[in-house]
Design goal:
NADH Oxidase; about 35% helix; four-stranded antiparallel β-sheet
Length: about 325
């Protein structure tokens, strides 16, 4: 890889989603390889004490980096590498010879700059089954599974547990302090800017409790005393058979593929992470849905009206080493 290609790959990888837009990764370049490494200084000390979300975020960056390498016309082998002797090493991507880019890969590459988290209201149109089926296939390719929450009682269970998880988190001053540290009141290289926070009409609310970034206790609209229209979006759960570091990295790769496929199909997404943040509600979700595996992240999906609003760190802060010509 030459310097120009390396810059493109790492810049593209940094477009990956991460919890609170922390971007907890670093890249180390070699002649024919790229290491993705965790940046523990950017871990959420309260919300992510197990480092589960850090690994999911870095796993998403791995998948974005792989897509960039493929878009340049090279083959790429990904080796996920959670090691006891080198715990910060997330993955090694080995770049091979020339290999034709597949149309599906090119579409996902093209979708990445348009991807964003849309916390606002969605249209009533449902996400087509064929789009969900393609997402499920992509998740299975990296060792994960998807489950739509469409059975009787699934939505009620999710809503109750989301409400409980939000209450548990927001009642803890450590959570509120951490959330405030990652809020940004203007354009910034990281964190969640005010421009990315919910904007809902007064006559519309979601049936799912959404994360309250600003302490309004009603972040998705709906004036008190009114009877707004209740929005019921597509709910999709990403899960894994295991619940270790390797499983979390696989989940991050699956999440990246799912979000890019959604963007390519014109579908907006928002993580409903509270229910899997809190260990107690995560276990209740697992048991209530009768899952054999582990729920990792719940997403709401639909046709939104927002736009990308979060920034990214400059490459000088994330890239270590240089490609050898």
């Amino acid at each position: 890889m030459n310097a120009e290609e390396l810059e493109l790959i790492t810049t593209f990888a940094s477009l990956a989603p991460s919890v609170h837009n922390t971007q907890p990764w670093r890249f180390v370049a070699g002649d024919h390889s790229l290491e993705v490494r965790a940046d523990p200084a950017r871990r959420l000390d309260f919300l992510d004490q197990s480092c589960r979300q850090l690994h999911m975020s870095c796993g998403a960056a791995v998948e974005f980096a792989r897509l960039a390498i493929r878009a340049l016309g090279y083959s790429c082998i990904v080796r996920l590498a959670p090691r006891v002797d080198d715990p910060l090493l997330i993955a090694t991507l080995t770049v091979g010879g020339r290999s034709a880019v597949q149309p599906a890969e090119q579409r996902l590459f093209d979708a990445a700059p348009r991807r964003y988290t849309d916390r606002g209201f969605y249209d009533d149109k449902k996400v087509p089954r064929e789009v969900l089926a393609r997402m499920a296939d992509a998740a299975a390719e990296v060792g994960c599974w998807l489950q739509p929450l469409n059975r009787p009682g699934d939505r009620l269970l999710a809503a109750v547990l989301l409400e409980k998880a939000e209450s548990i988190e927001s009642d803890d001053p450590r959570y509120r302090e951490e959330l405030e540290r990652w809020r940004r009141d203007e354009v910034a290289d990281d964190g969640v800017p005010d421009a990315a926070l919910p904007s809902w009409p007064d006559d519309r609310v979601s049936d799912m409790p959404l994360r309250d970034f600003v302490g309004q206790e009603q972040p998705q609209g709906g004036r008190r005393g009114s009877r707004p229209n209740v929005e019921r979006d597509t709910l999709l759960l990403i899960g894994s058979d295991g619940d270790d570091r390797l499983s979390w990295l696989r989940t991050g790769r699956a999440l990246a593929a799912v979000l890019l496929m959604a963007t390519d199909a014109g579908v907006a997404t928002q993580p409903l992470g509270q229910v899997t943040d809190v260990p107690a509600t995560r276990v209740h979700l697992q048991r209530g849905l009768g899952l054999l595996g582990y729920p990792q992240l719940l997403l709401r999906m639909g046709y939104g009206h927002g736009h990308p609003a979060t920034g990214r760190r400059p490459i000088e802060e994330t890239l270590v080493g240089h490609a050898v010509a």
